[in-house]
Each structure stands twice: as structure tokens, then as C-alpha cells.
Amino acid sequence: MTQSSKLHELLKVHFGYDTFRPNQLQIIENVLNGSDTLAIMPTGGGKSLCFQLPALYLEGTAIVVSPLIALMKDQVDALTANGIKATFFNSSQPQAEQQQSLEDLKDGKLTLFYVAPESLFLIESILREIKISLFAIDEAHCISSWGHDFRPAYTKLGILKAYFPQTPIIALTATADKATQDDIITQLGVPNADKFLSSFDRKNLYLDVRSGQNRLKQILDFLKNKLDESGIVYCLSRKSTESLAAKLKSAGFKAAAYHAGLSADDRSQIQEDFLNDQTPIIVATIAFGMGIDKSNVRWVIHYNMPKNIEGYYQEIGRSGRDGLPAHTVLFYSFADVIQLRRFVQGTPTEAFQLAKLERMQQFAEALSCRRRALLSYFGETLVEDCGNCDICKSPPNYFDGTLLAQKVCSVITRLREQEALGMVIDVLRGAQNAAVLEKGYQQIKTYGAAKDVSWLDLQQYIIQLLNQGVLEIWFHENGRLLLTPLAKQVLFEGAKIQLAHLNQRKEIASKTEAEETKTTSLLDKLKLLRSVLAKEMGVPAYVVFSDASLNDMVEKLPSNEDEFAMISGVGQAKLDNYAESFLKVINTHQQTLQKKPKKTKKKGAKKGETHKITFELFEQGLSVEEISEKRNLTENTIYGHLMKMHQLGKEIDLFKLISSEEIETIQNAKGKVENPEALKSYFTHFEEKIPYWKIKFAFSLLEN
């Protein structure tokens, strides 16, 4: 079996997925080649798999350095549920449990071993005795003083490469600008590490910035439509978390405050209740969340503005990790800016932190697509507006700003990309202050090119260019402005730029959206079963199955184990452990529906009859690809619908969907597979190159 085939088999058997997410396979193969690796991937992008799968493939134990106890526990629980041998070692464990973890490590019983950076070198003697497959440094931005969560203990990790020169190191983080990325590589002593940057675009997150007026009323209105959903409200101070949590409870919501001033036991209990869906709303300082691997957080609210974009991005990233839609709200007021400025005054990195705070403020005040502004901060250019943020939903009036953008880019070019925002504006306006004259900038060709635009307006237009990805700012080099590839298109290739009129600047929207929550009685039943099983096992509900997996069950309505194996997130361990229970609920629900008296047909689809809609479209002559696009469902789901209708007696020419050669190939494999009655045996035999639906179609045709 080839390496790629083996990796795909491990992915399906242990994690229940048929395909890798962007960059995952390349990163995994890089680690398997023995190369040091830096992986920058968004929250929910599948970072953990990039070291967990190589750990399964390689001999020995993977040592995972993780910053928070909660993060370790969550990942170990999830791995154990997937049939993978893993444990952790930290100060929260009883001594006997610590000793058992170390004994298992010494005896080579573990595939993954999680440890805090503060504890890593306490077990150095054991590490030197065992076979280590790889080192994974999770939340690697903590090693950099440029990062937003710097932890001194991480700086000691640079010695790992000296101690274990032949063992590959993979560093992973969701939030690192260019300065932080370079610092991670330097601090870890891996100058030749291959760098993999995945897109930072979390398309499922709705980005919403609102005025800070009447925040409580806005939050209460927002939550009216989200009674059964989990969410986090971030506040700046401990006092405000307690105050807001009390107000939410008075309004009838289940909420709890969380901050570093609570006892360790209280914090642990609050977190457990949140993970297990007992307390759906947490009002917290930034002390909460870094170790939360809860997949079904449906919304995140920032009651106050964060101090930098990295923190904001990481915190909103805790919602929608399952890929389903999630709503993020940022309340903005200048009072927050003033308070945050006070926090950083007198610190060793004051200038650096103030620059990042200013960029955060610019994002909150943006008049162009929020997602373009967010992605441009991380060096990623989105050419078109996203359509999934408050600005795109209610855009300001724009004008053709191409000429002004060209003037700005031209000045930055002639300043050799060495000057910060203030100097660029001074040169554009033809200022005659000492700083300009001493450097001789009055001599450059574009000096005074925008003297008819006020200083403040020019500042706002340049901020829009930053937010649109035309310009880039390097905070670690005195905030100098640089041109991006898009800027060169503006200067030389005729690319057009739209800028928002400043005199028509609208108030940041304060309306709340009535978002329709789609629930079905079957989904509720599946959630209840998941909750019961999770409670019995003592793990969070999402460790059993994510919301995405439950929604896939509702969509596909599996009726047997082979069909259940095709559900997203169902690996071998979960198939063995849960298929019978969940199939019983699904089948009972379907039987109940069939017994109910028929109702007068209304416009739209009946719940549970989605396969009939697909069949009607197929009969109208639409291709599988066209139906998939029209219904916003995967092609595999469409094929499943057609198979179900064929089994129900509808005439479908299956030979249009599968060739006679493929049928013959599947028939010839019958005597070679381990279990000829199980579809999975054929799927594995063909190294996952023939999808389940074709195998099912072939069997159906062979039986007729």
C-alpha cells in the first residue's frame, strides 16, 4: 500500500473523514519525510490532525507540547474516543495518575503524549530513553515576544533540536503575522523549517461590528433567536464578566462568568459545564477559550474591543469549528480604545502594542469588506468582497479611488517602502515639516500629489487600502508601509479600486438579525442521545459526534452500518461504538413518520423527504453536478438520494452513473475482499479510489 493510501485509510478508520482539508496532506507528508515544519492554519482548520496522523503512521511516541491543561484533556478524550492510545502529564493529575502516564510512556504504549512546556524537561531522562516519532509544538505563537500570548516557558523549547537533532519538529498556530512566524522558527532553532500557510478565511463566520451603545439590549435581542446555542461573550475586566453574567441570568438565560480570579476548581467546573452543554453561555475574560476544542460554539460576542487583531481572530475562531454557520459580534466604542491604551502604557513593547491596537481600531472602523480587511492583516488578499459581513450586507457609497490609490502607491515606492503612515501622508500632502525636509523628500516626483485631501481623510483612505490588501504594514519594522502584489496591479495593470465616501460614513449597524434556526425533531433526538452517551463516558458531547456529523445523519438518514460509515466523522471506533444506538433512533424516527397520517402537501419539502426532491430534479434532466450546486449538497449525498429512490422502486438508469467496466471490477473483487458482505471491505480494497455510492450501485445492478 502506498504512503498516500495508508494515510487515507488512517484518516477514515480513526477520524471518520474521506478527504483531507487544504494543506493537511502536504504538511503530514513533510513531517513523514523528517523535515521540520511550521504550519499556520486557522482555528478549526484541522491543525491537530497534522501531528496526530503522522504519530499513527510512525514508530514511537509523538511528544505534544501544549499550553493548557484543558486543551490536553480535550484532545486526549477525543483521541481515546477514536481508538488512539494517548495520555497527558501535568500538575493537575493525582500523583498515581502522573506515575501511570510516565510508566506508559516508558513502556512504549502510547501513540501521543501531551505535556505542558513547564513540565517537559522534568521528564527529560525518560525522553532520552524512548523512541520519539516527532515533537509537536502547539500554539507555537506563545514562543514569540511578537505574539499575543507570549509564555516564557516556551522559550526553553529551542533546546529540543540540539538534544534530538534527527527528530522532526512541527510547530503549529492559528495566529501569527510575518514577524511572529520568523521568530518561531528562530526560537525553535529550525532555520530550515518548511513553512505552510493555509488560508485564514473562515467563510462560515459572519463578521459583525456594532456601535457600543446599548450593548446589553443588543445582546438580549441577539440571544432571543439562539436559546439552544452555545456562545461566548468576551469582556475586558473580571468585574464586567460577573455583572453581565448576572444580567443575562436575570433575563432567563443560563450563563456563567469565568475569569482568572476564580478558584481552579470553580474554573474547571464552569468549563466542564460549558463543554457538556449544561451552561450554554460563558461570559469571560480572555483567560477562557485557548484550550476549548468545543466544535458547536455558534456565536462569539466581544463586549469590548480586543487589543489586537490576532487575539480577535483567535477568539472568534472558537465559533463554528464544525464548519457550520456562526455569528461573531464586535462592539466598538472609543472608550474601549482609551482603556486599552492605558493598559499598554509603560510596558517594554508599548510602541509595538499601540501600533497593533491602532490596526484593530482601523478594522472596527472599516468602511470596506471586513473579511478582506482581516485577511489582509495576515498577508492574504481576497479579491472580491465576501458577502458575509455587516459591511457587505449594508455597504456605504463608493467612488472610483483608483487614481488616489495610484498616488499613494507611487509615494510609498519612491520612499522605498521605508516609511510609516504619518510620513507617507505628509509627503502626499506636500508638508514642509522638519522630518520631511531633513530627509529631502520634497524632491521626489510625487511630493504633494494629494495636497487637496485633508490629513485625516487621507489617513482614512490609506487605512481602506490596507484593509483591502493593497498595502501592508510591518509593525516589527517601525510600522513601515509596503506594497502588495495587488498594489502593483493597481499601478501597472489597470486594476480598479473602490473607496468609501467619508462624508457619508454610516453609523456602525446596531440592528440584530432574526436568524432562522433550523431544527428537526430527529436532530433533537440525536442530540439527546449524544448527550446521554457523553455523560456516561464523562466526556463533552462533541467528542461523541460534532453537530456537523448529526446534521449529516439527518440529511442522509442512514439505515444500516454501511450507510452509517459514510457519515462525516464516523471512523472505525465510532462505527463500532455508536452505530447501533444512533441507527435505532434514526430508524424509529422514520417509522414514526411513515405511520403519521398524510397531510395536505404544501409548497416546499417535507422533512425527511429530501431524496424525493433530488429525484424530481434528476427526472427533469439535471445532472448530479447541477443538482449538487442547486441544492447546496455534496455530490456523494445526491448519489445517496438516487440510490435510496432506486431501492424504493423508482426507475433510474444506473448505467448512466456507473460504467460496465466499473461494475465488472467490483464484481471481480468479491472473492478477494475480507468480508464480501460489507461495503467497507470493497472501499478499502480499492484504496478508497472507488466511492461507496458506486459500490452500492454496482451491487444493486448485479442483484437484478
- Low-confidence segments: 504-520, 598-605
Q: Write out the strand line-up for the largest beta sheet, numbering strands in chain order.
A: 3-4-2-5-6-1-7
Write down the Rg: 28 Å
* CATH top level assignment of the largest domain: Alpha Beta
Shape assignment: globular
Strand content: 5-15%
Fraction of helical residues: 40-55%
Instruction: Give the CATH topology of the largest domain.
Output: Rossmann fold
What is the terminal-to-terminal distance?
A: 34 Å
Pfam families: DEAD (PF00270), Helicase_C (PF00271), HRDC (PF00570), HTH_40 (PF14493), RecQ_Zn_bind (PF16124), RQC (PF09382)
EC number: 5.6.2.4
Cofactor: Zn(2+); Mg(2+)
Catalytic activity: Couples ATP hydrolysis with the unwinding of duplex DNA by translocating in the 3'-5' direction
Strand-helix topology:
Blueprint: H1 3-15, H2 24-32, E1 37-40, H3 49-57, E2 61-65, H4 69-81, E3 86-89, H5 95-106, E4 112-115, H6 117-120, H7 124-127, E5 132-137, H8 160-163, E6 169-173, H9 178-188, E7 194-197, E8 205-211, H10 215-223, E9 230-234, H11 238-250, E10 255-258, H12 264-275, E11 281-284, E12 297-302, H13 309-316, E13 326-332, H14 334-344, H15 350-364, H16 370-377, H17 390-393, E14 398-400, H18 402-414, H19 421-429, H20 434-438, H21 455-467, E15 471-474, E16 480-483, H22 485-492, E17 498-500, H23 521-537, H24 541-544, H25 547-556, H26 561-564, H27 572-595, H28 610-619, H29 624-631, H30 635-647, H31 660-668, H32 679-685, H33 692-703
Helix pairs in contact: 1-3, 2-3, 14-15, 18-19, 18-22, 19-21, 23-25, 23-27, 28-30, 29-30, 30-33, 31-33
Family: Belongs to the helicase family. RecQ subfamily.
Cofactor: Zn(2+); Mg(2+)
Catalytic activity: Couples ATP hydrolysis with the unwinding of duplex DNA by translocating in the 3'-5' direction
